[in-house]
Specification:
Number of helices of chain A: 5
Number of strands of chain A: 12
Oligomer: homodimer
Structural class of chain A: alpha+beta
Radius of gyration of chain A: 18 Å
Largest interface: A-B, 39 and 39 residues
Order of helices and strands of chain A: EEEEEEEEEHHHEHHEE
Shape of chain A: globular
Strand content of chain A: 25-35%
Low-confidence stretches of chain A: none
DNA sequence: CGGTGATTTGAATACGTTCAAAACTCGTGG
DNA sequence: CCACGAGTTTTGAACGTATTCAAATCACCG
């Protein structure tokens, strides 16, 4: 049975909040609800308005690798050529705007500004992917967790205070670790006085001097 | 001292061999010669005409992660926004065409076909990156090596016969392993009768039924 | 044919995983 | 308001895969 997003199509918004000639449809996705599946025809591209979206691939035996988390303002599904190469779903409740691909292409051929914006977003996604590749291939468990927190702090943190919307399993599947290892790294950082956990989902960094 | 590529600027070629309104300069790079460095202003984008190019990031302590190998026909440096996010250099001797970014952008705004081509190439690069992320984060050493060989076979192989232009260290730095582990996996595959090594750089796959 | 860099192989080690169980959190209903 | 319960997180101990260090062998270029 396919779940239809609540309030689907109730509002229209401009891409990046500035391309008013290109309107998208807003949908509200429930926790764990799928936005698109790997291999489906790539009909649209998306912008996160609220909440968090995860993008991942699965192996046949169930192993999962999360390629990226997307937050407010991020564009995803941009890696489209013909078909989506990942599955995307909502981490918690998420508000997402969708833009039909053909309309985006048409609008981009009319507007140099939009074309540049799309280019920059695609470049940003590739940048992130390459940082992620470095992290996955060459960093230790501690470095991975540190890097993750630094990234989260940069993107959503306020003065070193980070709210983690995802579970330890999500973080582990993003970092190529197990949830136990993620938990141990966080505990160790706390023991070393480098952070403070208030509940499992609230982190306060001691040294905000963490860079990607 | 900066080495200048041999025969720099001796010829001009069209991007993808089909956009004749956009001409690039051909340079021949010597083995290990740098094409661009991480952090440099992204002035141009490149197409491999001959040979192999590797794209990588380094950590301060010298650990290296190769993000991609590029072969004939591949476009790289496309992840540019302002500055290159990786370093690119020649694996062996490589012939590379460079195209100034401003000219590409200008030409793309005139030609829908070129714009689509660039879009498709960017999407392809992101696709590759996401497959690589899955491989690095969730596959075992054996699966990584198998996946690498399958990929190489698909891109450069002729009926299961693969020529490896790069060293075991390059492969290891691509797969997030050590060169010893790569060597052991290849030996084990040979012992299991799944491939045949003629010298270290020539591989014959038994079952070409390997998919990415 | 010699020499240098690349590759293979071996043995000990270490890091992260696996399996197991306890502790914690948070939403729900009594 | 507190108790309950399911899901999440933490912690512990044993294990396994890939790494590290070391040495031998191979292959290619001059």
């Amino acid at each position: 049975m396919i779940t239809i997003p609540k309030n689907s199509g109730t509002k229209a918004v401009a891409l990046f909040g500035r391309h008013h000639d290109l309107l998208g449809v807003v949908s509200i996705y429930q926790p764990d609800q799928e936005i698109y599946g790997e291999g489906e025809p790539a009909k649209a591209l998306f912008e996160v308005l609220r909440g968090v979206v995860r993008k991942y691939k699965l192996l046949e035996d169930g192993r999962r690798q999360i390629a990226a988390f997307h937050f407010k303002g991020d564009v995803f599904g941009l890696e489209l050529d013909e078909r989506y190469s990942t599955t995307a779903d909502a981490v918690g409740t998420a508000h997402v705007a969708s833009f039909r691909r053909d309309k985006v292409v048409a609008a981009a051929s009319q507007s140099l500004e939009l074309a540049r914006d799309l280019w920059a977003r695609a470049a940003l996604n590739l940048d992130h992917a390459q940082c992620h590749i470095l992290l996955l291939g060459r960093k230790t468990a501690m470095e991975k967790v540190e890097g993750f927190l630094a990234d989260m702090n940069q993107r959503t943190g306020r003065a070193g205070r980070i709210n983690l919307p995802m579970t330890r399993l999500d973080i582990a599947d993003f970092l190529g670790l197990t949830l136990e290892t993620v938990s141990r790294c966080l505990s160790r950082m706390q023991d070393d006085g480098r952070l403070c956990l208030s509940g499992a989902r609230k982190v306060a960094l001691r040294q905000s001097t963490m860079v990607c």
